[in-house]
Design brief:
The complex is a heterodimer. By secondary structure, chain A is mainly α. Chain A has helices at about 30-50, 55-75, 95-115, 120-140. Classes of the chains: A mainly alpha, B mainly alpha. The interface of A and B includes residues 61, 65, 112 and 127 of A. Chain A: This is DUF4439 domain-containing protein.
């Protein structure tokens, strides 16, 4: 690697050109994807049934905030674009809430596992995310 | 516990101090509530006592300082009616959640799972108290995180 010697201009494979092989995926990447998928589910449900929007939108916002905070900790920018929302058919509100509770409960378990396995500097954030998901289940009751 | 003044023991000692304060606060809160809310306050107080007792046992096994309870605590504002009692209940749970959250980086294995369970329980009670008080939204994005 050339670091600016007299005959080596900073072009091509230099310090700022990071086109080497991609780094290993971070252990938190699945949690980011899950947070964005949960956000999309809540947004779709709120759109399909505006009567639920008041309850569901703050939870969608929380999942988005979790994804952004996880990305910050991982230290990589988010890919552009938002994930595709799930099928936008409009089942009965009870079925929607039941399905969201199930997804949220699963997400809570995943975040708790990630918290248990995380290095110290990530434990607090993951703990807050796991606790938040538990409160989302409660808020859907 | 291998580090008596910093790290795990200190973080858990802080959680214990927060549990003492929560137990004391629920004594004040409960008298201003009735029916289901009073029952919920009693259950919350019992849950905090149980966390306190577990922490006392755990900290007694180490060589660090085990903080003692105080005779009383300063209230952040007068608690005179149902509304102020519910507001304090939410704040006490969020505050205690914060201390358990702060213990997470200092723990591993079973101790971390205990701290996470305690953080989650506090967050759940805060959410239920917000619902009882008619506060929306009933959730916060990052339970226990300092504002």
């Amino acid at each position: 690697m050339a670091l600016g010697g007299a005959t080596a201009p900073l072009t091509g494979c230099d310090l700022f050109d990071r086109d080497e092989e991609p780094p290993e995926p971070d252990a938190l990447e699945p949690l980011v994807a899950e947070a964005l998928a949960l956000e999309a589910r809540y947004r779709a449900a709120a759109t399909a049934d505006p009567a639920l929007a008041g309850r569901l939108t703050p939870i969608a916002d929380a999942h988005r905030a979790h994804a952004e905070e996880l990305r910050r900790v991982i230290g990589r920018p988010a890919p552009s674009g938002t994930p595709a929302a799930g099928s936008a058919s409009a089942p009965a509100p009870d079925a929607v809430l039941t399905e969201l509770r199930r997804a949220e409960q699963e997400g809570r378990t995943n975040a708790a596992k990630a918290c248990a396995a995380a290095p110290a500097e990530r434990a607090a954030l993951l703990g807050s995310i796991a606790a938040a998901r538990a409160t989302h289940v409660e808020a859907l009751k | 516990m291998n580090s008596p003044t910093t790290g795990p023991a200190s973080a858990l000692a802080d959680a214990l101090a927060a549990e003492y304060a929560a137990i004391w606060a629920y004594g004040v809160i409960g008298v201003h509530l009735t029916e289901a809310a009073r029952t919920a306050a009693r259950a919350a107080e019992a849950a905090h006592r149980s966390r306190r007792d577990a922490l006392l046992l755990q900290l007694a096994e180490g060589s660090g300082q085990v903080p003692a309870d105080r005779a009383g605590y300063a209230l952040p504002y007068p608690v005179t009616d149902r509304a102020s009692a519910l507001r304090l209940a939410v704040e006490i749970e969020e505050r205690t959640a914060g201390h358990w959250r702060a213990a997470l980086p200092h723990t591993t294995g079973a101790d971390r799972n205990t701290a996470l369970a305690a953080l989650t329980d506090c967050a759940l009670r805060a959410t239920r108290w917000r619902r009882t008080a008619g506060v929306t939204p009933v959730t916060v994005p990052f339970p226990g995180r300092p504002a």
